[in-house]
Amino acid sequence: MQPFEPQPPDQAGRQADPYAQQGGWVSAQDTPAAPYGRPYTSGSYPAAPPAYPAPYGSYPGAPMPPPAPPQRQPRGLSPFGMPARHSWEIPMLVVVVVLTVFAYLIALALLATGNFDQYVLAFAAAPLLLWFGRGVNYAGQRVNGVRMSPTQFPEGYQMVVDAAARFGMAKVPDAYVVLGNGQINAFASGHGFRRYVVVYSDLFEIGGAAREPDALAFIIGHEVGHIAAGHTSYWRQLGMFLVPFLPIIGSSLIRAQEYTADNHGFCNRHTGASAAMGTLAAGKYMNRLVGFDEMADRAVVEKGFFVWMVNALSSHPVLTWRMWALRDRSRHGKLFLRPAPPAGASVPAGGYASSYGQLPASPPKSVL
User: Fold this and answer.
1) What is the pLDDT along the chain (368 residues), one digit of tens a residue?
2) Are the beta carbons of 292 and 274 closer than 8 angstroms?
3) Cβ distance 360 to 288 under 8 Å?
4) Which of 37, 49, 141, 337 has CB atoms 3.0–4.6 Å from 145's, for a disulfide?
């Protein structure tokens, strides 16, 4: 059983703690050898609150929020309160916006002196180009995508509604399913006052049911989180227009936003984190064969200049670092330097539990 997976009630009929340590981080009382030595002390999860109706229906291991609504809880990395923004997001945003404003001013100054270079014209026309591109993108989803509704992909539609309510959003974003052609992806965007989420069809079964319900809920929470955090705002994206031309600085801001969105996905359905990362790592059929803890533990051993460079130039955190951040909820995910193991780190005696006794997710049946 992977971490974050639902756990059955114990023999006394009590609900199992969804944060019971498994795999890589096993309680010191249960085993003398956890991966990398001792488990976290400062980052241990709070004791599970009293039983409470699960927000997505009753199932073993369902998250149990505290009595107060999540919107009244402080922001943090726990799934019970409101999701926290990554600590580097705002500082990186300020740097990028300042550089972008300088670029706009330089472009206008060059135009005033008669310089009509194509890059100068592109920067000067950035507000119009961005508005036009967002409008075309939104129109494409409206005329080509399948809009989620109570009758079309109802399970996904309900997940979008639940995620919007979970994050205290006043309006539920539109949601569309588009042909994936084997790709696993989803994204969020907007145009005008409308916001929307797009999910590729490969995350669903042909009949419309979610292939991995918890993983899909995590992914939808991640995308709705982009909207809730303001990442799809026109003005924010206009202030980030220089991002593609800022190596490392621009990509670092995008990675910080992805960590923030992961925090939203974790708050929306923490039990889907491992399956979602497994799907990104090995695809929709082999995701159950991915050892979440084993792959996360590689974040501290895979090192070197080129490892650092791959992460620094990436728009998303590399998967090993991302998995580590989703497992270690005591601190924000690493943006520049690889995670550091606790003192006395060591590989667990006997190795990792194998997932190869489980069957991978069944492929869809042919409709031809």
Assistant:
1) 444 444 444 444 444 444 444 445 443 444 444 444 334 333 444 444 444 344 444 455 555 555 556 666 778 888 888 999 999 999 999 999 999 999 999 999 999 888 888 888 888 899 999 999 999 999 999 999 999 999 999 999 999 999 999 999 999 999 999 998 888 899 999 999 999 999 999 888 645 677 788 999 999 999 999 999 999 999 999 999 999 999 999 999 999 999 999 999 999 999 999 999 999 999 888 888 899 999 999 999 999 999 999 999 999 999 999 999 999 999 999 999 999 887 665 666 555 555 554 544 444 443 33
2) yes
3) yes
4) 141
Q: How many CA atoms lie less than 13 Å away from 154 in the CB half-sphere?
A: 2
Q: For residues 222 and 196, what is the distance between their CA atoms, to the nearest angstrom?
A: 13
Say if CB 322 and CB 316 are below 8 A apart: yes
Q: What share of the chain is helix, strand, coil (3-state, %, to 5)?
A: 40, 5, 50
pTM > 0.90: yes or no: no
Rounded Cα distance, 341 and 301, in Å: 9
- Phi, psi dihedral angles at 241 (to 5 degrees): -60, -25
Calculate the alpha carbon distances from 303 to 87, 300, 321, 336, 337 in Å: 23, 7, 11, 12, 10
The burial class, CB within 10 Å (0-12 / 13-18 / 19+), for 32 is exposed
Contact 284, 202 (CB under 8 A): yes
**DSSP summary character for residue 204:** B
Angle between helix 319-327 and 273-282 (nearest 10): 170
Cα–Cα distance between 228 and 320 in angstroms, integer? 26
